[in-house]
Amino acid sequence: MNRFVYADNAATTPMSESVFEAMKPFLTEFYGNPSSLYRIGREARRAVTEARMKVARALNAKDPSEIIFTGGGSQADNLAIRGYVKGRSARGKKHIITSKIEHHAVLYTCEALEKEGYPVTYLDVDAQGHVDLEQLKSVITDQTALVTIMAANNEIGTIQNLKAISEIAHAHGAVFHTDAVQAVGHMPLDVQEMGIDMLSLSAHKFRGPKGIGALYVRRGIALEPLVYGGGQERGLASGTENVAGMVGLGQAIEDATGEHLAEKMGYVKKLTDRLVRGIMDAIPYTHYTGDPVNRLPGTASFVFEAIEGEGLILRLDLAGICGSTGSACSTGSLDPSHVLMAIGLPHEIAHGSLRLTLGEQNTEEDVDYLIENVTKVVETLRAMSPVWVDGKPDLTAASDLHDDHHHHH
Ligand SMILES: *Cc1c(COP(=O)(O)O)cnc(C)c1O
Predict the structure, then answer these.
(1) How do residues 216-264 score in pLDDT, each as one tens digit?
(2) 193-229, pLDDT tens digit by residue?
């Protein structure tokens, strides 16, 4: 009998019951516009204020006014980067430093700014996905406006040394932004202790609703607005507030952080360790990607030689398993993930990637089902693979396979 195992929590997470219950009254009874003066407007306003306080508390921000609600993580990243370099605080400085393994919300914002005349440096990462701090020190100048480096990577789970990065940025008068969309609710974060000037987060990555996020902006930093209009969110993200979303974000971040975090991390890490051990023991010619120690507790990322990630995902789906791959033909891209390329995996091998990301709602039974089925599917695909010969990968055939691959498009 098929189970259903959702193991793609880095893509999104199921909304929790407590978040849903917290949101409900603001979708039904208290639908007022928070700018309206009558009671249901005031109730909505009060709920937004409370949600903002919860987000500020979870990050150890000094003041709730440092939290700007946005329409999700991508919007928070865009506001931080574009808003900063175009804003008053940059004082005309234009240089941006980021890394090669950022989410596209950061990478493509930087590429767009490059076309507008902002010089951008894309830092290399090592084989485990850590940004090169020596390279950061060598490229940063007093003309660097912004350093933007993600807290934890969405494909391989590697956690960056945020404090070390912020210290280097600050020593040169640059501001430090971090895309913490994968990190919030999954590892401890403290904007003051870590020297973070701006931080992006998104509710749906920690059991909140989709389409709502926030940007922490340290007091004193003046950004150029993302959207002009009614002046909501201190004029930075105009538009009638997504009240229910903000309430959901507040509830989700309260549930996911504080005293609940350590226990959840321990539980999820134990499941992930079992999964990684099971797969590495059962399947030869497998690479475990990312930092084996300093990583998100729920992220298990592999590359299996001699198979294609897309076929793997489709066959796992038939077994009721949701996972993901960095080699996304379906998204129209010929190249394997930019993250797997940046950590130095050979092109042919990087096509066989699998990311399984666990959450608090997964169980040991889920993990055993994952191990059993991933093993079966990899064996099946290898048996059909032209580059799998006599029980091992035949690298001389790999370039032929890759040529085939291109011909399909
Ligand atoms: C999911 C994700 C985003 C985008 O967040 P959305 O709320 O989906 O816009 C940005 N950065 C990282 C690292 C992510 O994992």
Answers:
(1) 999 999 999 989 999 999 999 999 999 999 999 999 999 999 888 999 9
(2) 999 999 999 999 999 999 999 999 999 999 999 899 9
Calpha distance 377→375 (Å, rounded): 6
Indicate whether this model's pTM tops 0.85. Answer: yes
Domain spans, the chain: 17-256, 259-408
Ligand 1 atom nearest to 153, measured from its CA:
13
Ramachandran class of 244: left when φ > 0, alpha when ψ lies in -120 to 50, beta otherwise? alpha
Neighbours of 95 (CB within 10 A): 20
Q: Per the residue annotation, which of 133, 283, 329, 341 is the catalytic one?
A: 329
Can you tell me which atom of ligand 1 is nearest the CA of 213?
A: 7
Residues 331-366 pLDDT 10s: 555 678 999 999 999 988 999 999 999 999 999 999
Residue ranges of the annotated binding site are 73-74, 154, 182, 202-204, 240, 329
Residue closest via CA to ligand 1's atom 14 equals 181
Alpha carbon distance 52, 39 (integer Å): 20
Instruction: Give, in words, the CATH class of 17-256.
Output: alpha beta
- Coil, strand or helix: which one is 199? strand
Residue located nearest, by CA, to atom 8 of ligand 1: 73
CATH of domain 259-408: 3.90.1150.10
Answer whether 73 contacts ligand 1 (Cβ < 6 A).
yes
Ligand 1, atom 6: closest residue by C-alpha: 73
